[in-house]
From TrEMBL:
Residues 20-141 form the Trehalase-like N-terminal domain. One of its GO terms (molecular function) is hydrolase activity. InterPro entries: 6-hairpin_glycosidase_sf, Trehalase-like_N. This is Glycoside hydrolase 15-related protein. Pfam families: TREH_N. GO terms for biological process: carbohydrate metabolic process. Keywords: Hydrolase. The keyword Transit peptide does not apply.
């Protein structure tokens, strides 16, 4: 069984209160407020886990972004969407926001090219981030064999493959990809992580972000009559509950999964 080499010194997973959920109507990922994606079954809800640190910190698998000197952190959703922001408070008034989302293809019966994007934005000054990608296929059994160079990599295993496009060079180590770089205010960087041997012909990340925001807000607007008689903050709570339920539904059948975890 593959073991994840010591890396970012992430805090131990604690409770589900420390996690937010993102998804694409074919799968759901759980994102820790500490910056680590600790649960993901890809490419479908019923697939074996690819990231499962929430269950096993040594061999489960994760994709983590940690700013140096991280202090308090909290999460919130972009209004009326399932895009999740993790906000880190740093010394000297600096902040780092990591925005996680999966582009949605509701018309696709099979998730042929699922992608997870992690946007990085700094305010108040430069922020150095440490990044570690340690996917583990087939419930933590298989570590990928990485090929590539600099900012583009492919990880192969008997059970599948993933690709990575990074804002800066990464290096393979102990079955993981690791890197460290600076995020400057206004940079608008993205770390891209996808299923398959290589990055497909996708739209630019900012366009995917805008389109994903548009999808969720259009879906909310189409059903807003259900909560139109409610008052704030009740309306906000109803809307968030609806978004969570939609996140747990399968795109083409409309069937619900009982929980985001297996």
């Amino acid at each position: 069984m593959a073991t994840i080499a010591p890396g970012l010194g992430l805090p131990e997973p604690s409770t589900l209160h420390d996690y937010g959920a993102i998804g694409n109507l074919h799968s759901v990922a759980l994102v820790s407020r500490h910056g680590s994606i600790d649960w993901l079954c890809w490419p479908r809800f019923a697939s074996p886990s690819l990231l499962a640190r929430i269950l096993d910190t040594r061999t489960g698998g994760h994709v983590a972004i940690r700013p140096e000197g991280a202090g308090k952190s909290h999460q919130r959703y972009v209004a009326s969407t399932n895009l999740l922001e993790t906000h880190f408070e740093l010394p000297h008034g600096r902040r780092l926001t990591v925005t996680d989302f999966m582009p949605v293809e509701p018309e696709v019966s099979e998730p042929t090219r699922p992608v997870l994007l992690r946007g990085l934005e700094a305010t108040g000054g430069e922020v150095t981030v440490d990044v570690e990608l340690s996917p583990r296929f087939n419930y933590g059994i298989e570590a990928p064999r990485w090929t590539g160079r600099d900012d583009r990599w492919s990880g192969q295993s008997p059970s599948g493959s993933v690709w990575v496009v990074s804002p800066a060079p990464l290096s393979p180590s102990g079955g993981a990809l690791r890197g460290s770089w600076t995020v400057r205010p206004g940079d608008g960087q993205f770390l891209e992580f996808g299923w398959g041997p290589r990055r497909p012909d996708l739209e630019p990340p900012e366009r995917l972000k805008s389109r994903t925001i548009g999808f969720w807000r259009s879906w909310v607007a189409a059903g807003r009559s259900r909560s139109s008689r409610a008052r704030d903050p009740e309306r906000t709570l109803i809307e968030r509950s609806e978004l969570v339920l939609k996140l747990l539904s399968q795109a083409t059948s409309g069937a619900f999964v009982a929980a985001p975890t297996t």
